[in-house]
Specification:
144 residues; mainly alpha; two-stranded antiparallel ribbon; 4 helices
Length: 144
């Protein structure tokens, strides 16, 4: 009886390959030098991202990490908070509420909110998104 060839399982992408891919995406989307794209670099203040750039970064991540056997899709609000900040139960008087912090942490486990939690001013939320948080987002999503 003929045997069917075994399909080799798709190996998860290694962290250095993910880091390289995220660096490539950020360099292309923001026009920054690769040397500036270090894990601690903040997407907005260190790399100069503006609000429109966040959407571009999402699309480029999807394209970069999609493989022939597995699409890499980012749902709205999964990588960046987007529209949730207009919800009055999550933001009150320009500050993220306790419920808002819970939602942010649940939706974005890849982000370190420890510094942001001390002030919770919505204007400072974008400072929590770093190269490291993007790398960790991609890594978690690829393992899911």
């Amino acid at each position: 009886m003929p045997t069917k060839p075994q399909e080799s399982p798709t190996l998860p992408m290694a962290r250095p390959e993910i880091e390289s891919g995220v660096r490539e995406v950020l360099c292309d989307a923001l026009g920054v030098d690769a040397d500036d794209v270090v894990p601690a670099a903040r997407i907005k203040s260190d790399l100069g991202a503006e609000s429109i750039d966040y959407l571009d970064i999402m699309f480029r991540l999807e394209k970069r990490f999609t493989t022939p056997d597995r699409p890499f899709k980012i749902a709205q609000g999964e990588l960046f908070p987007e529209n949730m900040l207009s919800d009055p139960t999550l933001v009150e008087n320009g500050k993220v509420t306790d419920k808002g912090m819970t939602v942010l942490k649940e939706r974005m486990p890849h982000v370190d909110f420890s510094t942001f939690e001390k002030d919770r001013n919505v204007a400072n939320l974008s400072e929590t998104f770093t190269v490291k948080s993007l790398i960790e987002f991609v890594e978690r999503k690829l393992k899911a």
